[in-house]
Automatic annotation (TrEMBL):
Pfam families in UniProt: Put_Phosphatase (PF06888)
Signal sequence region: none
Amino-acid positions noted as binding Mg(2+) in the UniProt annotation, renumbered to this chain: D33, D35, D204
Top-rank taxon, per record: Eukaryota
Entry's Gene Ontology molecular function annotations: metal ion binding; phosphatase activity
Family: Belongs to the HAD-like hydrolase superfamily. PHOSPHO family.
Alphabetized InterPro entries for the sequence: HAD-like_sf, HAD_hydro_PyrdxlP_Pase-like, HAD_sf, Pase_PHOSPHO-typ
Active site: D33 (nucleophile), D35 (proton donor)
Keyword annotations: Hydrolase, Magnesium, Metal-binding
Name of the protein: Phosphatase, orphan 2
Length: 266
């Protein structure tokens, strides 16, 4: 039996000490955004490569309303279906998306160190795209769970997508509050007896700020250099309202990997 669960207080020890004492629970929770974090593109934009002439009609492109991304993507998928674009073609196109620099090495490393790391994705993309991309690259087993908008192909071959959940957060798009997802996941693990010593959140976008502001002082926010999340976190510091967690800016997955190596040695 795990000595942590036996109440020895081991779960508060550094990862290496816990493991030396035979604790099997991962100490660290890694949370990844997907678009422009794991992959170096927006998957919802990349799918437009399947459209006739690789573009959307202006009317459709201009129909997006702030906070209603899922509805917009539903219209895009309907247009692709109406244009005769089928599942196999979409899959072929989506699996050519480049990974962000160093991310393949990082995910390989995490996969080899699952004793230390639980790893989840929270993304505003959809289940179909993320499954295709992770499976094609052989990374699906690195992830413990993927939280994203549920998508499926209808009987007539159209891709359809739904909102991930409903929430009451005023800061987030209607279909997804990543903070709520993260908090529910951490609560669920706590009920299973897993208490993470550190949460590490890796992302780039504006919708990653809400979960990042829920991190505590022992956690680490890892915003991508030069992207919206990093700018928002910097602005908060300038406004004397800094995030509670430490902040580590990255440009390549290799920098994240180096930091994880330090963490498991501690
Ligand atoms: Mg992103
Ligand atoms: Zn939120």
């Amino acid at each position: 039996e795990c000595p942590c669960l036996a109440g020895s207080g081991l779960r508060w020890l550094p990862a290496a000490s816990r493991h030396a004492a035979g604790c099997p629970s991962p100490s660290f929770l890694l949370v990844f955004d997907f678009d422009y974090t794991v992959i170096d593109e927006n998957s919802d934009t990349w799918i437009v490569k399947c459209a006739p002439e690789e573009k959307l009609p202006n009317k459709l492109r201009n129909s997006y309303q702030k906070g209603h991304w899922t509805e917009y993507m539903s219209r895009v998928f309907r247009y692709l279906g109406d244009s005769g674009v089928r599942e196999d073609e979409m899959k072929r196109t989506m699996t050519t998306i480049p990974f962000t620099s160093g991310m393949r090495d990082l995910l390989d490393f995490i996969g080899k160190n699952k004793d230390f790391f639980d790893c989840i994705i929270i993304s505003d993309s959809n289940t179909v795209f993320i499954d295709w991309i992770l499976k094609a690259a052989n990374f699906h087993e690195v992830l413990d769970e993927v939280f994203t908008n549920p998508a499926t192909f209808s009987g007539t071959g159209y891709l359809t997508v739904q909102n991930f959940h409903t929430h009451h957060c005023a800061k987030c798009p209607k279909n997804l509050c990543k903070r709520k997802v993260l908090e529910e996941f951490v609560d669920k693990k706590l009920q299973q007896g897993v208490k993470y010593t550190k949460i590490i959140y890796v992302g780039d976008g504006g919708n990653d700020l809400c979960p990042v502001t829920s991190l505590k002082k022992d956690d680490i926010a890892m915003p991508r250099q030069g992207y919206t999340l990093q700018k928002m976190i910097s602005q908060m510091s300038e406004d004397f309202d800094p995030v509670q967690s430490s902040v580590l800016v990255w440009s390549s997955g290799i920098e994240i990997l180096s930091h994880l190596k330090l963490l498991i040695k501690e």
